[in-house]
Amino acid sequence: MAVVGPHPAVADVRRAVREALADLPRGAVVLAACSGGADSTALAAALAFTAPRLGLRGGLLTVDHQLQEGSGERARAVADQGERLGLDPAEVLTVTVGTEGGPEAAAREARYAALASAADRHGAAAVLLGHTRDDQAETVLLGLARGSGPRSLSGMAARAGHYRRPFLDLPRATTVAACRALGLHPWDDPHNDDPRYTRVRVRRRVLPVLEGELGPGVAEALARTARMAREDADALDEWAGSAYRDCALSDIGGSVTLSVAELERLPDAVRRRVLRRAAIAAGAPSGALSATHVLAVDRLVTRWRGQKPADLPGGLSAARRYGTLILAKSPHHA
Q1: Which segments are annotated as binding site?
Q2: Per-residue b or e along 80-107, where b marks 16 or more CB atoms closer than 10 Å to that residue's CB
Q3: For position 1, what pLDDT does the model report?
Q4: Burial of 27 per CB tally in 10 Å (0-12, 13-18, 19+)
Q5: Are the CB atoms for 224 and 295 separated by under 8 Å?
Q6: How many CB atoms lie within 10 A of CB 224?
Q7: Which domains, and CATH codes, for the chain?
């Protein structure tokens, strides 16, 4: 009798997880972040199948944001499903979502803080996230709409610290098909259809229009663009790191002094990365440091007319003096 293999979608998600974990040592703990949707449910099932075959210990984390009635019960059901799949631990993380930055950003911040804390507590070598190629395409479109640079357009990294995204090369349709083939019943979060959220509008309205007008394959092309943009951004960041060391005359105690002559020799893209790095080293909050701030500092190098210092987040300022650029606490905030 011929041996029938798994459904193609099931094979795809398992292969993606296996390849994402191939470098981990035997005995390592790997946790899947699972919301209960198709993407993360397929991820949890693939981890449950793959982990023991690689000598790893697979677990599941699900976050209760407490934003909808019955969210605690649904989170518990996701954890229970993880236990049935053989994942241990299968844990509910209950968080309180703030308001800063809007509902999407606040929920994301609370979720990642909880995942990071749980990963540390369990000694996890990796936390898997279920983002797909479609999510990557949405991220690139959002970056384009904001007028972001190459780093933002590079989308989500396949690996970032403890986090790994095995499904970035798989379409969402594959995770849906895998769940169906495995007899799993994902939960459809109503927030995923709420047009108040920008990402939902991109998913439900913008991408379908692009596919209809330009033909199929737009999501795949955007994801491919993200990979190329990430390669370029990584190379520029590496160059900027070396250039920063050449330009920095001092970097002590929240004050950074750079050589203007060295800065002037750099291409725009590298120099601005150096200036951003210097501002953060001096104490500027990275999340508040915008391209506008960096351009204002850049003009002190490239368009010097004796202008006043440039103000930066965190009570800092950048001033040009005697061939140097000094980023430090503003006298008004010292």
Answers
A1: 35-40
A2: ebbeebebebbbbbebebeeeeebeebb
A3: 46
A4: exposed
A5: no
A6: 16
A7: 8-225 (3.40.50.620), 253-329 (3.30.465.60)
Structure tokens at 78: 């996701």
Token representation of residue 19? 């390849």
Long-range Cβ pairs for the range 115-123 (8 Å, 24+): 115/31, 115/33, 115/61, 115/63, 116/162, 117/93, 118/31, 118/61, 118/91, 118/93, 119/31, 119/162, 122/29, 122/31, 122/59, 122/89, 123/29
| DSSP letter assigned to residue 35 | -
Cis ω on the peptide bond leading into residue 89 (within 30° of 0)?
Answer: yes
Mean pLDDT by 10 residues, the chain (334 residues): 75 98 98 97 98 98 91 95 97 90 82 96 98 94 78 88 97 97 88 78 90 90 91 93 96 90 96 96 88 94 95 95 94 57
CA distances from 233 to 141, 271, 273, 298 (A): 17, 13, 10, 19
How far apart are alpha carbons 218 and 205 in whole angstroms?
14
pTM of the model: 0.81
- Among 315, 271, 323, 322, smallest CA distance to 297 is for 271
> What gap in Å lies between CA 297 and CA 319, rounded to an integer?
8
**Known binding residues for ATP:** 35-40
pLDDT of residue 112: 95
312/291 Cα distance (integer angstroms): 11
Nearest to 152, CA basis, from 136, 168, 129: 136
Of 174, 64, 74, nearest to 130 by C-alpha is 174
**Host H or E run for residue 241:** helix 218-247
Determine contact, residues 325/318, Cβ cutoff 8 Å: yes
